[in-house]
Amino acid sequence: VQLVESGGGLVQAGDSLRLSCAASGFTFDDYAMTWVRQPPGKGLEWVSTINFNGGSTYFAESMKGRFTISRDNAKSTLYLQMNSLKSEDTAVYHCAKAPGNWSAEFNYWGQGTQVTVSS
Fold it and tell me: Among 18, 19, 58, 62, which residue's beta carbon has the most beta carbons within 10 A?
């Protein structure tokens, strides 16, 4: 299993970013996928989960209405569109693979991509 995130960077509050996660080494469209993040000096925080076919999604309360999770199973790629970014969104963002087709749990995750939001 390999998960490679990209798309992070330094932005200002109110800006948008789209993160991508290229997956390989497993049958991507058999598994739910999740984004988690780790703010500086803190533990992992769940962001969002999408089921195996993209038909169901869940978001942490603080991200609802600002973030969108999606997937392109033909490209084995997961996305996170982040709008109206806030300084508290600063974190390393990791994509993670679930153990099944609909679960917020995960058994593999990538190295992450840094998102820094300046106020």
Answer: 19
Q: Cα-flanking dihedrals φ and ψ of residue 69, to 5°?
A: -105, 140
DSSP per position, 13-44: TT--EEEEEEEESS-GGGS-EEEEEE-TTS--
The tokens of 24 are what? 């390989």
Q: Is 43 exposed, middle or buried (0-12, 13-18, 19+ CB in 10 A)?
A: exposed
- Rounded Cα distance between 77 and 66, Å, is 20
Nearest to 102 by CA among 79, 62, 80, 71: 71
Q: Are 101 and 30 in contact (CB under 8 A)?
A: yes
In 3D, which of 115, 65, 119, 73 has the Cα closest to residue 91?
A: 115
Using one digit for the tens of pLDDT, what is the confidence trace for 10-62? 999 999 999 999 999 999 999 999 999 999 999 999 999 999 999 999 999 99
List the beta bridge partners of residue 48: 35, 59
